[in-house]
Design brief:
By secondary structure, the chain is of the alpha+beta class. Helices cover 53% and strands 29% of the residues. It is a multi-pass membrane protein.
C-alpha cells in the first residue's frame, strides 16, 4: 500500500518542473494583464480611428515663442535650455483643412504646439541651429513633394504624425512574448503530468507481469 502511494507522489525533479511551469503560466498571465492595462490598451485606443494619408507641406515657420527643455551634462548635472518653436503645416489627402505635423506621438504629447523638438543642448544657440536646419530641410528638400503621414480623427483631428511610435511590430511583440511564456508553462505542466502518468502505468503493467 505504501509503495502504491509513493508511486503517485511526484519526485523532486518532477515537483520542480511543475513549479517552473506554474511560475511561467503566472508570469505570462500577469505580463498580458499588465501590458494590456498599461500599454497595449492605450496604444490600440491611440490607433483606433487612425490611418495613413499623403501629406503635402503648406507652410514652414518659426514662432517667436521659445520652449524650455532639460539637458544632462553628467550624472549629477542637469539644466534648462530653450529652443524656438518650428511649425510645419500640411494638407492631407483625407482633408483640405491644414494640419500641424509632428515627429511622432511622444513629441506630440510633450509639446503639441511645435512640429519638432531638438535634442536638448546646453547652448540655446545650438538648439536654434538644429531647429533652423530642420526648417531648411522641410522647405528645400521636401518642399511640395508628397510623403506618408499618420492621423487619428478621434483623438487629434488637427494633428498628423510623421511616424508612429506604436506600430504593428511593437504591438505584435507586446502580445507574442507573454503568450509564448504562458504556453511554455502550460506545456511543461502537461508534459510532466503525462510523463508521471506513463510512469505509473508502466509500473502497474510491470507489477501485473510479476504476479
Amino acid at each position: 500500500m505504501a509503495r502504491s502511494r509513493a508511486s503517485y507522489e511526484y519526485t523532486e525533479a518532477e515537483d520542480k518542473s511543475m513549479r517552473l511551469g506554474f511560475l511561467l503560466i503566472a508570469a505570462g498571465l500577469l505580463s498580458l494583464l499588465g501590458l494590456g492595462c498599461c500599454w497595449l490598451r492605450p496604444a490600440l485606443q491611440e490607433r483606433g480611428g487612425g490611418g495613413s494619408a499623403n501629406c503635402t507641406v503648406l507652410a514652414v515657420r518659426q514662432l517667436g515663442e521659445r520652449f524650455a527643455c532639460t539637458f544632462s551634462c553628467g550624472a549629477a548635472c542637469r539644466g534648462t535650455a530653450r529652443y524656438p518653436c518650428l511649425q510645419v503645416l500640411v494638407r492631407t489627402s483625407r482633408s483640405s483643412a491644414p494640419a500641424l505635423l509632428h515627429e511622432d506621438e511622444r513629441q506630440l504629447r510633450i509639446n503639441p504646439k511645435c512640429s519638432y523638438i531638438p535634442p536638448c543642448a546646453r547652448d540655446d544657440q545650438e538648439n536654434s541651429e538644429n531647429v533652423t536646419y530642420k526648417q531648411k530641410y522641410w522647405k528645400e528638400k521636401v518642399g511640395s513633394q508628397p510623403f506618408t503621414c499618420y492621423f487619428n480623427q478621434h483623438l487629434r483631428p488637427d494633428d498628423v504624425m510623421l511616424k508612429r511610435t506604436h506600430d504593428e511590430t511593437v504591438l505584435l511583440h507586446c502580445f507574442l512574448w507573454p503568450l509564448v511564456t504562458f504556453l511554455v508553462g502550460v506545456l511543461i505542466v502537461v508534459l510532466t503530468i503525462c510523463a508521471k502518468s506513463l510512469a505509473i502505468r508502466a509500473e502497474a503493467i510491470k507489477k501485473k507481469k510479476h504476479l
